[in-house]
Amino acid sequence: MEIYNTLTRQKEKFIPREDGKVSIYVCGPTTYNYIHLGNARPLVFFDTIRRYFVQQGFQVKYIQNFTDIDDKIIKRSFEEGLDASIISQKYIEEYYRDADALNVARANCHPRVSGHMKEIIEMIAVLIEKRFAYAVEGNIYFDVSSFPEYGKLSHRSSDEILAGARVEVDPRKKNPADFALWKAARKGEPFWESPWGAGRPGWHIECSAMSLKYLGSGFDIHGGGMDLIFPHHENEIAQSEAATGKLFARYWVHNGFITINQDKMSKSLGNFFLVREILEKFNSLTVRFFLLSTHYRSPLDFDFEKLDASGQGLERLKNSIELLEEAIQKHSSVAIKENDSDFQASLSELKKRFNQAMDDDFNTALAIGIFFEAAKEVNTFLNQNTVMDKADLVKAIELYAYFNSVLGLFKTGPEGKFILDEKPHADDSLVQSLIELLLKVRQEARTKKDWSTADRIRSGLKEIGIIIEDTPDGVRWKLSI
């Protein structure tokens, strides 16, 4: 397997830190709004590479954070007159709805900034002690000049760093490019106590603290969109390697932008489409197909005609699966041959080529093309044969299942059986919506310190078999049976 490493600007053979194990950290959303299609691209892509590693027999530890305290969240909380924690919780829940629709599996852990202040403060203290950071009136800044390798990820010169640094102008800094590790509290904003006074963390320190906590120094893959290369990931490297004296991450993987008429899709430009809005018109797995249909490092220009084409492509694969499943049911009583057929050999070759595509820097576009080749091969086989051996059919459906286990283009049920009708059962959807509504009411009660109402909701749900768990990463619910 070869992976393009942004740090070295070349493909490198993938050698994990530990044999048989892969550790991945991906920067998650800032939870002040619904995710847009540009947010969804890394979400779907890194879910796919995680799936591939699992299918190759690796034990994968996958971490994706939530930035649940940030200037944008605070601004939104002022606009809506709600506590910032309520805003964050709302959009974390909405994120899960969109992620589930896109067939994205939950990370092993979704840490939140608000639940990791201890680790963040401890890391800042280390940087101050080692003289990589300095205090100015309750603010703590990282001294960029103290880290000679600053700029090694983005490959920017000192002049480019100064010109491109997205930092607030502050004449108290030693260097304009120095970035905030800790921000002194401002009136009306959320804050936490620290050795330097009340305040909250800067954006970059949070991911360093959380990734190091859950994965340790030298973890395998750090991922995100290309827009995070500078300053976010550049700053993560500087503060992490300054604090630990060790390699931070081995491979840096960044997906390209989604564009609208060649311009980057972003909330700041106002040219974005929310995933929630797109899903009102298109099948969610059509959207996933679209996001994987172009190599991840290439820009992906969006228009609705391309989504229509993706839907048609997905329908062709679905039809082939249905034909194959019908043939399996029809020929289920046919004896299995002892020897592989030419047809099975052809399918094995397709699987080999699929793996080669994924091993070549996760080329999902080529992998999808091979899925279509397989569908053509299977359809031809079914059309040209009236008497078929069950072994051939089983081999074909196993190949489809393998492709899908990596690409996630179709949802599956027990024993990996394809679910080709994505429409949810009305009763299931209604129950989930009602539970989520009750959890929101409970969270509002807890925020107001109305413990009686919060406990009454908890006990009432327990009586009907729904267990609530309050965790550092937020509230979770599950059935008691």
Can you put this structure into words, describing what you see?
There is one protein chain. With 481 residues, the protein is an alpha/beta fold. The protein folds into three domains: 196 residues, 3-Layer(aba) Sandwich (Rossmann fold), CATH 3.40.50.620; 117 residues; 54 residues. 47% of the residues lie in helices and 15% in strands. The strands form six sheets. The protein has a four-stranded parallel β-sheet with strand order 4-3-9-10, with helices on both faces. The protein has a four-stranded antiparallel β-sheet with strand order 5-6-7-8. The longest helix is centred in the middle third of the chain and has 27 residues. The model has no long low-confidence stretch (mean pLDDT 91).
What's the arrangement of secondary structure elements?
Layout lengths: L1 E4 L4 E4 L7 E6 L10 H19 L3 E6 L6 H10 L3 H18 L15 H13 L3 E4 L2 E4 L15 H7 L14 E6 L14 E3 L1 H13 L3 E7 L3 H16 L4 E7 L2 E3 L2 E2 L10 H4 L5 H9 L7 E2 L2 H27 L11 H18 L4 H21 L5 H18 L3 E2 L5 E2 L6 H22 L3 H13 L2 E6 L2 E6 L2
Parallel strand pairs: 3-4, 3-9, 9-10, 11-13
Antiparallel strand pairs: 1-2, 5-6, 6-7, 7-8, 11-12, 14-15, 16-17
Helix pairs in contact: 1-13, 2-3, 3-14, 4-6, 6-7, 9-10, 10-12, 10-13, 11-12, 11-13, 12-13, 14-15
